[in-house]
């Protein structure tokens, strides 16, 4: 873990200048545990950045976020209590470790996942859905990305050919964008990589054995799904539901990352902070 901590700290510093650490290739390190991309659905055509570039970057972003969470969770006394029960810390950490292990190479089971846009189990995609997971057999799930809204999600890192153009829809996120008007945790912190990470938590081969239960999308007392920052930050039962709710992990990791990276304290989200403009000003779902 000390070596991983050093590598990831170096990465975090390099990320602040939008570069990667010299002589460290995350994509190369991840080849053993990297989902496949359907090239008929998500073509690698010029000009760049294209949809294939977005997904490749998102796959790397998802692993980096899981690894950074592993580094920070033990000493996190500020963000963690808003999302999970104190007694669950070791198990929550284990869920992130299952995604990222062994260390920086990624879990080999991730290579069983196939990413595409063709909806093989309609009507899984609608205007309020970013992606959904389809499992035909236990070890080979599909993540279906939903057009067009999922492609509006940006990246942690610069996409090939994206540069720093303000008007580029595939541009990376920065602290000013995610801070928003009031400095609250909101839909603005989410990236395409965290859409994938949310779906990884649903993959039973990765995560079910931690609690002996599937990590699903739980329901709030009002019957709505526990999606988005407002639902999972202090509003979901921490003793029973948060530990097996995918967006609890997703937004915990996001909150932790942006607090660490931007050096600011984010305020608790309100209902309006979950109303995502990429889903028409409504709550986005990731079943």
Structural class of the secondary elements? alpha/beta
For the termini, the CA-CA separation is: 32 Å
What portion of the residues fall into strands of 2 or more residues?
5-15%
SSE string: HHEHHEEEHHHHHEE
Give the % helix. Answer: 25-40%
Shape by Cα distribution? globular
Mean pLDDT comes to 83
Taking pLDDT < 50 over at least 5 consecutive residues as the criterion, the unreliable ranges are 18-26
Query: Main β-sheet: number of strands, strand sense, barrel status?
Result: 4 strands, mixed
Strand order of the largest sheet: 1-2-4-3
The count of β-strands is 6
* Total count of helical runs of at least 4 residues: 9
The radius of gyration over CA amounts to 17 Å
Characterization of the model:
It is a single chain. The chain has 287 residues and is α/β, with parallel strands linked by helices. The chain is 34% helix and 7% strand. It is built from 9 helices and 6 strands, in the order H-H-E-H-H-E-E-E-H-H-H-H-H-E-E. A hairpin with a 5-residue loop joins strand 3 (131-135) and strand 4 (141-145). Helix 4 (89-100) packs antiparallel against helix 7. The two termini are 32 Å apart.
